[in-house]
Amino acid sequence: MEFIKYISTYATTIPAIICLFIFYKADKKFLPIVLLIFVSPIADLLGNYWIKSFRNNIVIVNIYSILEVLLIIWQFSRWKLFENLRTPRLIAMAFAILYMIDLMIPAVENIYTFYFNIISSFLIVIMGILQINKVLLTGNKMIIKNPVFLICIGLILFFTTLAIVDVFYFYGYHNTIALSINMYNLVKIMNIITSLIFAVALFYIPKKRQTLL
Fold first, then answer.
1. Is the pLDDT of residue 186 over 90?
2. Structure pTM?
3. CA distance 152 to 198
């Protein structure tokens, strides 16, 4: 388990390093996801430090959870998934309120923003599917090289896994040690796969347009 945890933590650094090289050149339409990918390994490292220092990483995980969701909603807004700017703002506000409520009413062993995590995971999966549908309707033949498509695939895979694991926790299956370890490993393995997908997607992000003076 420690080996998988180690690989998962450092796998996120691969796309994060790529972000450093493309940040100023990449189309700003992809800014939110680039920021998220860059912040992810930092959150992992801080989480590991918090565990060693304070025996848990609840604070880091909860802060990262809301940041992650808001950045993803912002990204889908940049991709024009929504018909108007009001919709993503309302969704973001709704999740911010849910997040605050969830902090005050812990769901599982007084840890993490459980209800927020599971509802936001399903929302991200739905948004990813809708965005892929829009990409497919454009008739792009080189779909495998489309960064929007690849990023959405990564989001759908990871957050589907996360939602399933959270449902298992909701029904108390985490009390079974063997199953709990398997679920933990599943999330970490999916994190590795998603990181690799993101790394490939970053290479296909178009450069920002040059402004002619």
1. no
2. 0.90
3. 9
